[in-house]
Amino acid sequence: MLSTCENISSQVDDGYNPRPQKHDCSRHCGTIVVPFPFGLEEGCAARELFQLSCVDKARSVLQYNDFINVLYINVSQGLIGIKYNSSFVEILFNMFSQMRFSSQGVASNIFGKGPNLYVDPTESASVQWAVANLTCQQAQQNTSTYACVSTNSSCSRVISTMQGYVGYRCTCLPGYDGNPYIPDGCKDIDECLQTPRICKELCHNTEGNYSCTMCPDHTEYDVIRMQCTPRRNQSLLLGIIIGLTIGFGVLILGLIGIAIIRRWKKDVHKKIRRKYFQKNQGLLLEQLISSDGNASEKTKIFSIEELKKATNNFDSTRILGRGGHGTIYKGILSNQHVVAIKKARVIKEGEINDFINEVAILSQINHRNIVKLFGCCLETEVPLLVYDFIPNGSLFELLHPDSSSTFPLSWGDRLRIAAEAAGALCYLHSAASISIFHRDVKSSNILLDANYTAKVSDFGASRTVPADQSHVVTNVQGTFGYLDPEYYQTGQLNEKSDVYSFGVVLLELLLRMQPIFTTMSGMKQNLCTYFLSEIKTKPIIDLVDPLVLEEAIEEDIRQVASLAEMCIKLKGEERPTMRQVEITLQLLRTERMTPSHVSQESNQEIEPLMTQGAIDQVIHALENVDRANVASQRSQTSCYSLEKEFLSSASLPR
Asked: Rounded CA gap, 55 and 61, in Å?
């Protein structure tokens, strides 16, 4: 590592000027301080790369260039806080589409010409910077351009995990703080004032350090006055009397107040639980369950005491995993039923709304491929959800295990899991009593039960949609790599957003690659971009998982790849519906299980989205069956108006 860091260009970087050419330079842009070597005017910065623009002093808008705003500058730690403009996002999308850029390329494109003295801005919002592209040894040889001009300063290296050695910067020595780039900029730190309890007794500040001493004999340290005071000679008898008096008083007060305190605590806890119960829409849920026999059979309201007992007071050893909307605990109810209990990791208003939203949605839907909501607890600040326990984890863990030992997932199982998940999403979009957009479809939200049957889970981000609307406008929410680009740009969530995310899951099943993976060169790569680029120049059999090649025929692979390619089209109107996706996958499974009984006409129908007419014919053929199923499912809900009221009250704008 040392040799790599020191192996920089032999070209001498003499572009740094340790003294500003102009006097009386402005050092503030509103509330933002702009210390040297940065500057706001020509001749006030140490080099051209450090010159900034104060475009709006009243609102403290400080710009590095058209792409980047500067939020703060920390010379002691060598950090600059940045915020990207919308133009930067467009540049990143262009670079991803070209598939040719490196971390150094990003930094040089964004921060301008000249030596690349900024660490890759994609690594962190707090960007490190160097003053020159030299080693400390090289910089110290030329005193006229050496940046560390303060007496109590030293030279430090700036290293990036992706770029390697960047250059050097200056820091104040331990015990000093300030600006090492100006004469006498590093000032002594008074540790005694800065950290009052740094010594047990007396603290003495020294230049660059401090020392601790004990109080003289017959004195003791007064923590309030922070000095040594004469030790008091208290009478032993007086101390005994005071001790007995205090002890007797505490005992009497304890005996008198113990009953009152217990009663008061019990009443307070009861009021708090009732308050949370009402806040979490508990009254509406109770009304829904009592008026709907089907709901009462599948949804139970638990007390917090029951769930504490089931999880051993939420013991950390019972944690099954941590998701985007909470922590999952394994619980055993009093009837020995094993359940999974979701509890919020951080108490925030948005997450409370997500939990309420998930209770409202899951209490109304019933599908064999959707995780079953066993009940909930509304007596805490954040509702707790109780599901049936799913023993085999998620599809993501099965496809991308941490260890080398893994369960081999056959081609038939992959098609089955994909078809089951597609059926669940199709049900949410078109067959449930009210349309639901999942908004966070990904392989880690597809769980596998004891028989490896797919169970779609995590509805914390889902949105319900009225029948007369095709989309809803929301704050963008989802997982990077699965997120629909059209939804990201417009904020309009529709059923095709779930189709795009499901297309990424299909690519995971086909290629067995993560949605954001690291290439051989160490760069982060988007799976959709990689697939769309490689499929133009390579046959699909060169891209898929070797386990798939062992079992699947080339025609099946091409059809699934074509279906995935349709799902991840940039324009939502060009993507199929989840109904079309489900039918295509089911026909593929039928074709695979009964190859000898499939006619040439069926083969033409199963070609994945080859023509829209082929799928429309299949949909028309199944419409009569679907209508009967939908009517049966909707007839199970006898109080639809009350369900709609509950969903409306729980689905707060997000």
From this structure: 6
Dihedral sign for Cα atoms in the order 22, 23, 29, 33 = positive
Q: Would you say the pTM of this structure is higher than 0.85?
A: no
Would the annotation count 279 as a binding residue? no
Long-range CB contacts (< 8 A, 24+ apart) of 50-55? 54/26, 54/29, 54/30
Rounded to whole angstroms, how far apart are CA atoms 445 and 455? 8
- Token pair 């009462």 in the structure block, residue: 296
Residue 272 corresponds to which tokens in the numbers above?
Answer: 């708090």
pLDDT value for 637: 34
Domain ranges within the chain, ordered by starting residue: 2-185, 194-230, 273-389, 395-610
Q: Are 479 and 504 in contact (CB under 8 A)?
A: no
User: Where in 311-353 does DSSP place strands (E)?
Assistant: 319-323, 326-332, 338-343
Cβ neighbours around 262 below 10 Å, total = 10
DSSP label at residue 162: T
Residues 6+ away with beta carbon under 8 Å from 533: 99
* Positive or negative torsion for Cα 530, 532, 534, 539: positive
Residue of 291, 324, 321, 623 lying closest to 482 (CA atoms): 324
**Does 440 participate in catalysis according to the annotation?**
yes
Fold type of domain 395-610: Transferase(Phosphotransferase); domain 1 (1.10.510)
* Contacts for 191 with CB less than 8 Å, ≥ 6 apart: 175, 198, 203, 205, 209, 210
Q: Given 13, 354, 440, 556, which residue is catalytic? A: 440
In the chain (654 residues long), the average pLDDT of successive 10-residue segments reads 44 82 90 94 91 92 88 92 75 57 51 72 76 93 92 92 88 93 93 84 88 83 76 65 88 89 84 80 67 59 89 89 77 89 67 63 80 84 84 90 75 94 92 80 92 88 70 80 91 91 96 91 91 92 91 92 95 93 92 56 43 46 44 36 36 38
Give yes or no for a contact between 459 and 618, defined as CB atoms under 8 angstroms apart: no
Domain 273-389 has CATH 3.90.209.20: no
The two structure tokens encoding residue 128: 């490190």
Q: How far is CA 214 from CA 200, 204, 226, 448, 467, in A?
A: 8, 11, 12, 66, 78
